[in-house]
Amino acid sequence: MIKAVMVMNTQGKSRLAKFYEYLSVEKQQELIRGVFSVLCSRAENVSNFIDAESIFGLDSRLVYKHFATLYFVFVFDSSENELAVLDLIQVFVETLDKCFQNVCELDIVFNYSKIHTILDEMVFGGQVVETSSSEIMKAVEEISKLEAASNAISLIPKSASGWRSR
Amino acid sequence: MSGPSLMDSLFQRTLEDLIKGLRQQLIGEQAFISKALEEIRKEIKSTDLSTKSTALLKLCYLSNLHFHDMSFAAFHALEVLSSPRFSHKKIAYHAISLSFHDSTPVLLLITNHLRKDLTSTNEFEVSLSLQCLSRIANVDLARDLTPEVFTLLSSNKLYVRKRAVAVVLRVFEKYPDSVRVCFKRLVENLENYDPQILSAVVGVFSELACKDPRSYLPLAPEFYKILVDSKSNWISIKVLKIFAKIAPLEPRLANRVVEPICDLMRKTGAKSLLFECVRTVVTSFSEYESAVRLAVEKIREFLVDEDPNLKYLGLHALSIVASKHLWVVSENKEVVIKSLSDPDPNIKIESLRLVMAMVSEHNVAEISKVLVNYALKSDPLFCNEILGSILSTCSRNVYEIIVDFDWYVSLLSEMSRIPHCQMGEEIENQFIDIGLRVKDVRPELVRVARDLLIDPALLGNSFLHRVLSAAAWVSGEYVEFSRNPLELMEALLQPRTSLLPPSIMAIYIQSAFKLLVFCLHTCFVRGGSTAGVSASASYESFDDLSIENGADSTVAHGQTCTSAPITNESIVNLLKLVELALSPLLGSHDVEVQERARNLLGFVDLIKLEALNSSGQEENESERKGVEATKIIRLVHDAFSKELGPVSLTAQGKVPVPDGLTLNENLGDLETICGDIELPSSNTFSFGYPSEEKDVLSFSNLQIKEDSGQSNESTSLLAEHRKRHGLYYLPSGKSEVISNDYPPANDPALQGDNNDNASDLVKLTAESLVPKRKPNHSKPRPVVVKLDEVDEKPVAVKQLESRDDSLSGAVRDILFGSEDILPTSSRSNLPNSNRKGKKKQHMITQVESKENVVDDGNSSSRRRKDHSHGKERRHRKKNAEERNETDRKEKESSSNHPRRHKSRQRAEEPLKVPPQTSVIPDFLL
């Protein structure tokens, strides 16, 4: 079971946070800070694991990957395999890369909804349901189309009424 | 009316505008956010769903990334959810899964929305609502939506079906009865050939099997097939996880599965799968020699890999093997020790753990030496990690692996001098603990303590203060082993002690007191006049114990006299030194320091006259006074020379409660009466009072009624001692009563007596012939006094378990077919009275089972101790309170969710039904 997914930049600013159990925002903030304080003290080229039990409680593990200015962090319990989750981070980043052509931090900053959509396609309620980035892309595109279509209907009457009232 | 809302929607900031604004930071982030929140609060009330949903999205953003509470928007999220547009729905679902939880008031209003979307023809809408359900489902939602989930489990859209499978996990967890409906379909999906579905199902089963492996044993054939056929690493990993849980329960299954796992291990190229195979073998198949060997081979590959991740995992796997096959670790000793200097902190810690696993009584000295060297070189964090693990390993099981305590004590002092050392507290405890338990090590302990105390540089290091306090205590308590008490005295009273915190300062002063008394005693009573000798002889005759101690100290004294003779002159100097050092402390703000300083100075005042007199004058002149002073010295010395035994953690509980004294009831009332008056102080007073009075009497009159029983006197003296050294006793005055019962550390006479009285377990380890650092002769391991610790009181975790029980119970019902499956609806409509009856019955069984647990704990302690009522009573009372508490909770929760109990109750029955072995189908045999 995956417990949480976080993306934060090297300054500790949270860019994405997804917890698969309900946590109050204060608690979320505390956890993210806790993770960051450990992450930022780690050197390059060391292993990608952190002792998560001190932060998240018993039976929790944490792997992270560092890309450019971002840390990608997955927290999970003993029913996941550490290396497989590392691969999963890779899939996530690859998908982002495909989606935004050379993804950078700004893409993630400005595409809040889309990032969540991508993650939701991969991880469903803490369980991994899709590990192929092309499948994820397909679904995300479909969803975007649907959204656009439903918004398009809305735009016309709204703008029309707006003009009329002027 | 439509004006403002229209304007709002026209000029509403989108999420992108919000993010841009945030990034520009014209007015500061916090100010900007609060302005934005204000806008959102307005916009979200709009009747236009587009405006509303945009506001909601912005709110989600602020909640998710800037941690602002969004619970106020719960109802608005529901309104957006009712929109027919997909984009609105998506935002609403996102908001709901971010902010809803079990106690969100509008949670139940969502049921129909979810139902509608679950039956939608648009797979993405279905997916959204399933996703939401997987996050927020509670008992009611899970119950009400079970039929829809059931339908979706056989949906022909893969996209939907795998999500339906995944959501089942949450539904089962929240509403175990749904197992009866959905389980069969879930199992059918195990035979699906689509890897995506299979992956989801296996994932669900691996989660379920984690919590209760036994229930899923009957599915072993299916899992086995998947294990053999699977092409996907992800699925294989999950199946391995399942087997790691269920195989140990059924040896025949393990026999059957171990080979395919080894095959997989040989063939696979994926590191993740390889590691999972290794982990499965070392955790659950550790008795299969060949499999373990293969796994170890693979571990070795990991260990020498460049990738720190693999190296770390290799070490991790090694530490799992270590518990059962220590040879594996020793085989890879070199790699492990080399990893101690790896730049990666994870690898360092893991290898440290492994090194500690290798420690035995033969190599503890070597390994500790190597580790201390590492500690000197490494960063503070890891240094303390190393020291901590040395300390905990060496002290494990009452210093089981330590043979040479002299060495260990000097190791402790060496460790405390390491610059980064922050383990002062633990070292302090061990110093004192060893002093109490191991009699033979005391001379060395005192020597080590002296070295620590005498070094003024150490006083500046605040991490060392705790160690110093132990050193001070040791040198005061075991002063008879000191080579030069005068020197120690100077060390204890040196000016830099002002750097110490008051609590430790107090210990210093108290130790100085003991030292002073010892010096005076040696000078006047023992080595002094004939009157002194005869007096001490007569006084020794009435106290058996002090003969022992007295003899010891004479011997010790005999040795020390040559190095530092205590003359009258030195005594006079000593007294001056004490006065000089302590008089400033009379004005100390700390009560402890002030009081102890006053005690000591008061004593000096009493003695001073005689000390000064006897240095110059004839005996008969000051005889009367002299005798008096000698008596005082003797008395105080007697109090201090009473040996302390280690105090069992549970000692307090063994104090018998006198008849007619009802402790429990009155104290409860007191609390309400006294309100915020500090109770503990009044408590100690009432206990301390009688003994204090005795002291006063004996000191003022010096008329000791010797026939009134030495027990009385020694009790009072001991009580006095106890009072002064409160730090080293259990906090309550109650333990005074039993203080006599402790045999002094390995006193042979008492040992004989106590053999049947199991209160003290003296453990004699076999004499070891391990080569020592001192090559001349190998000495036997000194006796270590041990007290039997009554087991930690069992904590009942019923509440937690029962949930899972109901789930596994339901699963077993299905798999073992002990009950025919009824549709849920008919079950949940059981008559109310019936439900209540069951609930009550359940509560009773729970209470009873708890009673049993408590009784068990007590009877075992009763067997060991013949007087142990006090603890029991308190125990009982506490338990009774707990019980009340749980009962109350039970009632509360039952009023909220009456159905839970029903299901829990039912779940308890089938537990005993199935004979496990018969369940495994023949193919495995």
Automatic annotation (TrEMBL), chain A:
GO terms for biological process: Golgi to vacuole transport; intracellular protein transport. Keywords: Cytoplasmic vesicle, Golgi apparatus, Membrane, Protein transport, Transport. GO terms for cellular component: AP-3 adaptor complex; cytoplasmic vesicle membrane; Golgi apparatus. InterPro entries: AP_complex_ssu, AP_mu_sigma_su, APS3, Clathrin_sm-chain_CS, Longin-like_dom_sf. It is a peripheral membrane protein. It is found in: Cytoplasmic vesicle membrane; Golgi apparatus. Residues 1-146 form the AP complex mu/sigma subunit domain. Pfam families: Clat_adaptor_s. CDD domains: AP3_sigma. Belongs to the adaptor complexes small subunit family. PANTHER family: ADAPTOR COMPLEXES SMALL SUBUNIT FAMILY. This is AP complex subunit sigma. It comes from Gossypium hirsutum (Upland cotton). The gene is LOC107945750.
Automatic annotation (TrEMBL), chain B:
Residues 29-605 form the Clathrin/coatomer adaptor adaptin-like N-terminal domain. Residues 879-894 have a biased composition (Basic and acidic residues). Keywords: Golgi apparatus, Membrane, Protein transport, Repeat, Transport. It is found in: Endomembrane system; Golgi apparatus. Residues 738-757, 821-925 are annotated as: Disordered. InterPro entries: AP3_complex_dsu (IPR017105), ARM-like (IPR011989), ARM-type_fold (IPR016024), Clathrin/coatomer_adapt-like_N (IPR002553). Residues 861-878 have a biased composition (Basic residues). Residues 823-834 have a biased composition (Polar residues). The keyword Nucleus does not apply. The keyword DNA-binding does not apply. Its main location: membrane. It comes from the Eukaryota. Belongs to the adaptor complexes large subunit family. Adaptor protein complex 3 (AP-3) is a heterotetramer. PANTHER family: AP-3 COMPLEX SUBUNIT DELTA-1 (PTHR22781:SF12), DELTA ADAPTIN-RELATED (PTHR22781). Part of the AP-3 complex, an adaptor-related complex which seems to be clathrin-associated. The complex is associated with the Golgi region as well as more peripheral structures. It facilitates the budding of vesicles from the Golgi membrane and may be directly involved in trafficking to the vacuole. It also function in maintaining the identity of lytic vacuoles and in regulating the transition between storage and lytic vacuoles. This is AP-3 complex subunit delta. The lineage of its organism: Eukaryota, Viridiplantae, Streptophyta, Embryophyta, Tracheophyta.
